[in-house]
Amino acid sequence: MYNLREIKTKSNQMRNVIFVINTTLDGCCDHTKFYPDEETMEYFTHLTRDADTFLYGRKTYQLMVPYWPDVAKKTSGDRKADYEFARAFDAINKIIVFSQSLDSPEGKKTRIVRTGLHDEVLKLKKEQGKNILTGGVIIPSQLAALGLIDEYHFVVHPIVTGEGGRLFEGTSLQESLQLKLVESKIFKSGCVALRYLKQ
Questions:
Q1: Helix or strand or coil: residue 21?
Q2: Chain segment 16-67, per-residue pLDDT in tens
Q3: Can you give the pTM of this predicted structure?
Q4: Rounded to 5 degrees, what are φ and ψ at 65?
Q5: What are the phi and psi torsion angles at 5 (to 5°)?
Q6: Could you report the per-residue pLDDT of 70-98, keeping only the tens digit for each?
Q7: Cα 20 from chain centroid?
Q8: Across the chain, how many H-helices and E-strands are there?
């Protein structure tokens, strides 16, 4: 529907790490300031179905789990788009959480990693499988600084908040990220999905 098929790669190439996030026009990515509409949720559902691994920091992980797995268990009461996303989220094979403070994971799919972000992600990229998704702010910022993100998917909402956490806030890059816009889609709500590849 959205032409979000995984990029065709040769067998000796690594799989993609994809950063996916909602943001406002002024760069706010604080989830408490806005909520995705159904079309936006469908977009995230398609991306999630093309992945089998999530990379999160503690805060993002605790926002997502157990919330979405619990929604997937319900039989009614949520928007259809939310339920479909929850089912796609719950079908993911592996969740890697980079955290020094998280004591124990929720469920058998989650593994906590204390150190070695660079080496751990490189190892995951070399494994056979589908795309690897990451979200939130801190871990994706670190991955971007390490040059480990292959695709950036920004869903820009037609809102200006004037406050809240910002995209790549506090990120220290040795050089500017050079990205190439390869796809865009305008939703009925006015949201725009932008897909960039790292150059």
A1: strand
A2: 999 999 999 999 999 888 889 999 999 999 999 999 999 999 999 999 999 9
A3: 0.90
A4: -125, 125
A5: -60, 150
A6: 999 987 777 999 999 999 999 999 999 99
A7: 4
A8: 6, 8
Cβ neighbours around 180 below 10 Å, total: 9
CATH of the domain at 182: 3.40.430.10
Q: Which position has the token pair 């932008």?
A: 194
| Residue 66: domain span | 17-198
49: tokens are 């179905």
Question: How many domains, the chain?
Answer: 1
Helix (H) or strand (E) holding 56: strand 51-57
Question: Which token pair is 72?
Answer: 């997937």
User: Residue 103 domain-assigned?
Assistant: yes
Q: Tokens in use for 13?
A: 């190439």
Closest CA to 171 of 34, 36, 19: 19
Interacting residues of 77 by C-beta distance below 8 A, sequence separation 6+: none
Is 94 within a domain?
Answer: yes
Beta-ladder partners of 181: 196
* CA dihedral over 162, 30, 42, 140, signed as positive or negative: positive
Residue 2 lies in a domain: no
Q: Evaluate whether residue 83 is within a structural domain.
A: yes
* Cα–Cα distance measured from residue 193 to residue 40, given in angstroms and rounded to the nearest whole number: 8
- Going through the chain in order, the beta strands assigned E by DSSP cover 17-24, 51-57, 94-98, 110-113, 131-134, 151-157, 179-186, 192-198
Tokens of 43: 């977009």
